Amino acid sequence: MTLFDLPAPKKVSEVARMIQEIFLEEPPFQDLWVEGQLADVHVALSGHRYFTLRDEGAQLKGVLFSGEARRMARLLGVLPVLEDGLQVLAHGRLGFYEKGGQVQLYCDMVLPQGGGLLQAELEARKKRLEEEGLFRPERKRPLPPFPKRIGLITSPRGAAVRDMVHIIQRRWPGMEILIVPVKVQGDGAAAEMVAALALANDPSLGLDVLILGRGGGSFEDLSPFQEEELVRAVAMSRLPVVSAVGHETDVTLVDFAADVRAPTPSAAAELVTPLKSHVMNQVETFRERMAHALRRRVERERRHLRLLALNLHPKRQKLRVENDRQQLDDMFAALQRAIRNRVLLGSLKVESLEKRLRTLNPLSVVERGYAVVTREGKVVTRALSLPVGAAVEVTMADGSFRARVEEVRRGRPPAGPER
């Protein structure tokens, strides 16, 4: 075979499509679970996550597109944090990335293994319970300031219960304590604590507040306090519940549902138990304040009574009556003066009006020698308005008479008679 007898070569893109078709045609490549450790994790601006899956013998490129990541977050309730070194279990299909020239796993699910997977499940559970409102701050109840009986739901053995009892008795000697013994780790622990909560909430026991807790432990040891049934029981408790699980850095779902979270069991005992010496000091302070206030009130009332007695003395009453009589006389005199002034002003006003009326009265003019001429009941004001021969009535001061017009002249009349 010579060089000219070789078959026609294929382009790189054609070879890439052939590889892609091989993966598409093989069902095992389209539904594949791969276990490995994450490396070279990179989140693009688009939200796509690129990484490498590897073990001691090989490595495989992988990608989780943003749409698949959102779908996974909806299924789990939370999207696990993917970071270098995390052991995961990835599901997806194998494909050939033509431009990169590499085989890679196109993932639709990437789950952390072991503790990481458990943490993802806990986050999903927490989110669901939070959406139901079990962790709302307004559901939290205040602790009773002066409890009479405290309930401890914990293991009867171990340092935690001894510390709590010791602190409660030290802070308030004689405080009643009821220990409800339960398992705090292992199978059935959550169910026992749920039953203990139901028992402690019985009103006949007379408890005022509950502490649910245990000492420190591993993540697995504290897992009963992550169980949904226990979280719901704490949230629905009739009595206030203080969670005291592990150390300060340990956080469980019970902490979110409890009314108060204490960092340790010892801190919980201090939270629920008032310090008797401090309370007694406060009581003494209040007693002194009340005694002082009472003495001031008694002295004030005593002064008031002395003033009342002084005001009710016969001499003072006689003086008050005399003063009232004098004041009454003054008021009567002022009233008389006001009446006289009012009458005088009225008389002056009447006199003024009378003068004005006399001035305006036509009879006053008649009395000075003038007469009023009327014709047919109407006053005649113009001489030219009378025809010759008209009958008129002339009114004077002492009477009237009838007359007939003989002549009408123009011009002013002659001056009137002297008076």
What does this structure look like?
The chain is an alpha/beta fold. The protein is 43% helix and 21% strand. It is built from twelve helices and 14 strands. β2 (49-54) and β3 (59-64) form a beta hairpin. The longest helix is centred in the C-terminal third of the chain and has 47 residues, at 314-360. The radius of gyration is 58 Å and the shape is elongated. The N and C termini lie far apart (178 Å).
Helix content: 40-55%
Low-confidence stretches: none
Q: How is the largest sheet built, in terms of strand order?
A: 1-2-3-5-4
**Class of secondary structure makeup:** alpha/beta
Shape: elongated
Q: If you compute it from the alpha carbons, what radius of gyration comes out, rounded to the nearest whole angstrom?
A: 58 Å
Number of domains: 3
End-to-end gap: 178 Å
Query: What series of H and E elements makes up the topology?
Result: HHEEEHEEHEHEHEHEHEHHHHEEEE
| CATH class descriptor name of the largest domain | Alpha Beta
Oligomeric state of shown chains? single chain
The number of strands is 14
Mean of residue pLDDT values: 87
Largest sheet: 5 strands, mixed, barrel
Task: State which percent range the strand residues make up.
Answer: 15-25%
CATH topology of the largest domain: Rossmann fold
Q: Considering the protein shown, what is the CATH homologous superfamily of the largest domain?
A: Succinyl-CoA synthetase domains
Count of helical segments?
12
